[in-house]
Amino acid sequence: MARPIWTGAITFGLVSVPVAMYSATHEHEVGFHQFEKGTGDRIRYKRVNERTGKEVDYDNIVKGADVGGGDYVMLDQEELDSVAPGRSRSLDIDRFVELDDIDPIYYDKTYFLGPGREEAEKVYGLLRDAMADSGRAAIGTLVMRGKEYLAAIRADGDLLMLQTMYFADEVRDPKDQIDSLPRRNAAKPAELHMAQQLIDSMAGKWRPADFRDTYTDRVNELIEEKKSGKEITPAAEALEPTAATDLFEALRRSVEAAKKSRAAAEPGKSAAPKRKTAASGKGAKAKAADLKEVSKSDLLKLARDLDVPKRTTMSRAELEKAVRKARRQAA
How does DSSP classify residue 38? Predict the structure, then answer.
């Protein structure tokens, strides 16, 4: 069994649930060592005292905060931990929020949460089941490895999942990063319709196992080719950017290709799913149900079918209001 990377307790109200945190993901990129070009000499990194030139053991290194004028305030880990005693063993819940209200840009890394000890299983199960029924995520903070994290906890089957998150001031403003963006609704109606057809023709279910890191596969093939002295096979060049004058034709040919590909993959089935309207399929189900029970993605589909303007820039509450208004006008 894996060892937990953090143990502590989820606290909300007067309830405390001991938990243990485990890594939920791992990367499988090819590992490389560094060498000086043209030689077999390895490149090594050392922690060196810049005054004496001697290597320093990690346990003898402390952190220094620059306070200006070439002066530093030195802090060791015990002093850093003393700032928030107990916080490194507590995950304090501030509130429970709708999962759909969390913008994915705030998510960072995912972890599994298990019961911290055997006698905590009942309380753990109660929290998991209550959260699953509510459809909400718990938002709180914890201190781990000398850093405070914002975290979202959600129920997923038999366990609780924790996702560390970025704080609001850690998310950059796109206007500070990108010089200019095209104005909205600048495309011609025919181009927009064709683009929506392309999206529909390529629609499918989310199945994680359908996707694989093919770049790592190609790197491993490259290593084998060089190892055996074979000629290296270069990959195909990337497509040239589509010119504005060629956009409609490129979309049209893409739709045709997607339909043919789907027909070949699913013989006997329709090449492309028929677009749903507000009165059919999921739309009918959503129409009959309270909009608060409909996922945001289905709300967006309803808004698109009802031709709600500026729908992609709306919050969930604004979408619900706009869809209700559009339904009344259509009735």
Answer: T
